[in-house]
Specification:
about 110 residues, Alpha-Beta Plaits, 3 helices, binds magnesium ion, 6 strands, four-stranded antiparallel sheet, about 30% strand, binds adenosine-5'-triphosphate, alpha+beta, about 25% helix
């Protein structure tokens, strides 16, 4: 099992969701976050407006998947979020030790999807 965390441009979220659904990935957590990458947030635009602060609005997408869904999930995030411009975001992939579905007590791969 892996936990995939992607930091993306907020305006790409709908496209990322669409691409994930096309790969049969439906279980996601989304949060609004602030961050900056190598450019330290100084040269980016949000909805056509230049952001003044050092920390820019980003969206964090978290998806826990079984091994066979790792590459399809990465592919879908790339498809939805990549524009070729700075600030497109990053994908972090972590080993996930355990998952528990609280309602049933199921664990591991059974509990994820
Ligand atoms: N190494 C990192 N650790 C933690 N968060 C990061 C890291 N790199 C990027 N992020 C997060 O991802 C967001 C988007 O990063 P961004 O795409 O600007 O990365 P970058 O390395 O600057 O690449 P690029 O040159 O394409 O802009 C940042 O605003 C920050 O929230
Ligand atoms: Mg950057």
């Amino acid at each position: 099992m892996k936990l995939i965390v992607a930091i993306i441009q907020p305006y790409r979220l709908e496209e990322v969701k669409k691409a994930l659904y096309a790969e049969e990935v439906h279980l996601i957590t989304v949060s609004e976050v602030l961050g900056h990458g190598r450019q330290k947030g100084v040269t980016e635009y949000y909805r056509g407006v230049r952001e003044t602060g050092n920390l820019l609005r980003k969206v964090r997408v978290e998806i826990a998947v079984n091994e066979n869904f790792v590459e399809p999930t990465i592919k879908a995030i790339m498809k939805g979020a990549q524009t070729g411009k700075v600030g497109d975001g990053k994908i972090f992939i972590m080993d996930l030790k355990e998952c528990v579905r609280i309602r049933t007590g199921e664990r591991g791969p059974e509990a994820i999807g």
